[in-house]
Recover the amino acids of this structure.
């Protein structure tokens, strides 16, 4: 049987997306499942649910828990964590860059995503600023300013809007989400189940 | 080092509590961690967050996902599942019975809880009805009508209100939740982490 790809839907402002970005390549490779990186924005989806902010800010008890859970989970995964001084940070510019990379099949998309998440959740950097995103690209040996400018072009902005609409159509309501052969899995805790779904019957 | 108990906070109307109720005794025994069963009500906690219904009904995309996830997770755990024709069902009477059992240290509390969850999520029975709760107690060889009557006494109703207030004080915002030596873990997916926390350094 063919193994379907795993679509990895992530949002740069999302804490739990960081946990998956940090490990998805290793665990997917071990399972022999190709990963397709699918950047999108949660903001418009949250707005449809009546929230103008992260639910972790809207519901303080849930937010307090999430930050403690992130500390524990990052320690468990062995990845650095520093609670950002601003939350959520806008992932719009980074997501536009990721959309451009996706549309043009750039091999640096996963490395770029890892670097942005680490900047946001381990280094307290303002990933919402276009200059910071450019600087991250520079640090990967890429022409940051030029890529950020291309990412802000109207047709590429439209790409991100279309990805976010597609996420809504797929029933996605949070991040990270994994889609395998029509099956939706929500949350970093379901990554192993999504991979098992991809390889069942193999 | 002493191993702290694991407090298991559950709500009879909660789908994901079913997953934990079905397996907590086995996994806790294997880890050598004593479990304290802590019934409470989510309704008043949801009301504080502005919801007059389950968030799975308030947010339809999340609800659709949850039912599919429950199907998959029940299959994975090897436990029966039948989507209830009414959701959520009131857990008030069952929680009062569980509070009475807790306050009087009855050994039948875990078995009663398992039977109620199975009635709700595998047999589509109206666990919100006092007669159905009595019938479940009867099937366990207990005097159902008498226990339900005792559970409806004012002092025992007050017990449940106090447990629910206590849950709020502890920062609990959903079910199931696990509390180990001051550390809060939310969701069936964190049961293993809660047990590991109880036994770390042992």
């Amino acid at each position: 049987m063919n193994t379907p790809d795993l679509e990895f839907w992530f949002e740069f402002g999302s804490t739990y997306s960081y946990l998956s970005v940090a490990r998805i390549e290793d665990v997917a490779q071990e399972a022999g499942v190709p990963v397709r990186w699918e950047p999108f924005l949660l903001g418009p989806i949250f707005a449809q649910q009546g929230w103008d902010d992260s639910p972790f800010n809207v519901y303080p008890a849930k937010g307090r828990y999430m930050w403690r859970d992130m500390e524990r989970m990052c320690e468990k995964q062995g990845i650095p964590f520093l609670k950002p001084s601003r939350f959520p940070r806008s992932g719009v510019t980074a997501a536009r860059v990721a959309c451009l990379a996706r549309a043009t099949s750039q091999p640096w998309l996963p490395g770029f995503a890892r670097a942005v998440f680490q900047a946001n959740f381990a280094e307290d950097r303002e990933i919402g600023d276009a200059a910071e995103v450019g600087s991250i690209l520079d640090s990967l040996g890429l022409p940051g300013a030029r890529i950020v400018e291309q990412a802000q072009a109207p047709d590429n902005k439209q790409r991100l809007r279309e990805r976010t609409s597609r996420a809504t159509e797929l029933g996605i309501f949070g991040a990270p989400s994994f889609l395998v052969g029509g099956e939706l899995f929500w949350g970093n805790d379901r990554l192993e189940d999504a991979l098992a779904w991809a390889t069942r019957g193999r």
Chain B has one domain: 6-199.
